[in-house]
Write a structure and sequence with these properties.
single chain; about 100 residues; alpha+beta; Alpha-Beta Plaits; two-stranded antiparallel ribbon; 7 strands; about 35% strand; globular
Length: about 100
């Protein structure tokens, strides 16, 4: 049961209450749980995804230790900007999508 960390930014107060009931709030908008099972972590991610899909405000980053993932880090993000963690030369890097080219007239 690995450590799970959730960081929120510019989200509704309901997230704070929900996350605070399951995790320790280490600093404003930073939550941690040292022993969370994969099933509980998945349920937490499902609730966050559902709420963010309906409310659509702010961003949420959720990370945990996962041996099968690149660099041993599992990562879920909700909101903007979307990020992908990729392995490159034994390092983890964050890749953001390129902006759409603007149409010129």
């Amino acid at each position: 049961m690995p450590l799970v960390v959730v960081i929120t930014r510019d989200v509704e107060d309901r997230y704070r209450g929900y996350l605070g009931s399951m995790m320790l709030e280490l600093a404003p908008c930073v939550y941690a749980q040292p022993r969370m099972s994969a099933r509980v972590r998945q349920r937490l991610a499902d609730v966050l995804a559902d709420w963010h899909g309906h409310l659509g405000r702010g961003s949420i980053v959720m990370c945990w230790a996962e041996t099968a993932a690149n660099g041993g880090l599992g990562l879920r993000t909700f909101g903007t900007p979307p990020k992908d963690v990729v392995a490159h030369d034994a390092m983890l890097l964050v890749r953001r999508p390129l902006p759409e080219p603007s149409e010129s007239r």
